[in-house]
Amino acid sequence: MAKERFVRLLPGHRDHVWSYDFMQVRTHDGRAIRLLTLIDE
Fold it and tell me: Which of 9, 11, 20, 32 has the highest Cβ tally under 10 A?
């Protein structure tokens, strides 16, 4: 059984913890759409 190597902090107040992810999709005609999604947890 592996031990966790980090401590996960829970958000204490607004703007304390943010998550982000880059996403890319292609339209039906082949053009790329790139998005940066942000979440205030």
Answer: 11
Q: Is residue 17 within 8 Å of residue 9, measured between CB atoms?
A: yes
Evaluate whether 41 touches 18 at the Cβ level (below 8 Å).
Answer: yes
For 16, the token pair is 């304390």
Residue 34 CA from chain centroid, whole number: 14
Q: How far apart are CA 21 and CA 9, in angstroms?
A: 19
Predicted confidence (pLDDT) per residue in 15-29, tens digit: 888 899 999 999 999
Query: What confidence category does residue 35 fall into, taking pLDDT thresholds of 50, 70 and 90?
Result: very high
Domains of the chain by residue range: 15-41
